[in-house]
Amino acid sequence: MANPSAGTRVPSDSRWVLAGLATLVVEAIFVSLGAKGPGWRRALLLGTAAATGFALLAAITKSMTNVLVAGVGGVFTSWQLYAVAVLGLGSFLIMQSAFQVGPFAVSQSALILVNPFVSIVVGYALFGESLRGGAGNVSIEVLSLIVMAGGALVVSASPLMAQVHDESVGEHLLTGRGRYARWVAQRSGS
């Protein structure tokens, strides 16, 4: 429905530098905020940092395909290859840290939800892409994003998700709250 418009295939060097610096600053902020606190919050913040890096990584990979079309030899002399290696490794390590510090469902939800939003911003900032306008189209686009976010949050809050990833159901993020508490009480026969 969003039908993104085609922008430029080759962003300017200044746009790449600004996008790279912005991504590093955002990642650093989320990593530093995720250094302390309860496990669920740390997992959320580190997952957000990793998702931000992965969004820029996708744009760099897209750019690298343009280099590849010119010949395989050019890939080894392009900045994109080395940026993919450094940003990919860094984001991967942050993601693994997010998985280790708190509930998997929380970090995975952050990865799933944040990446598309940041990718839209990166597409706009780097490639000049834009989404379809108009009240009807924008309403459907926003509704789609809300449904996606809601679905990911429902799945991440599910006690079944905690069991799949061997997390203690008693230590689940939503223990004692709302439907989760009723589900646990019903299941335990109380």
Give a summary of the structure in a few sentences.
This protein has helices spanning 13-33, 39-70, 72-75, 79-101, 104-127, 135-157, 159-164, 178-188. It has 190 residues and is mostly helical.
Explained architecture:
- It is a single chain.
- With 190 residues, the protein is an all-alpha fold.
- The chain has a domain of 121 residues.
- Helix content is 76%, strand content 0%.
- The protein is built from eight helices and no strands.
- Helix 2 packs antiparallel against helix 4 and helix 2 packs parallel to helix 5.
- It starts with 12 loop residues before the first helix and ends with a helix.
Shape: globular
Main beta-sheet annotation: none
Q: What structural class is derived from the secondary structure elements? A: mainly alpha
Which bin fits the share of residues in helices? over 70%
Number-wise, the strands total 0
Number of helices: 8
Task: Give the assembly state of these chains.
Answer: single chain
Regions with little confidence, pLDDT below 50 for 5+ residues: none
Distance between the termini: 47 Å
Mean pLDDT: 81
Gyration radius, to the nearest Å?
20 Å
The helix/strand order is: HHHHHHHH
| Strand percent estimate | under 5%
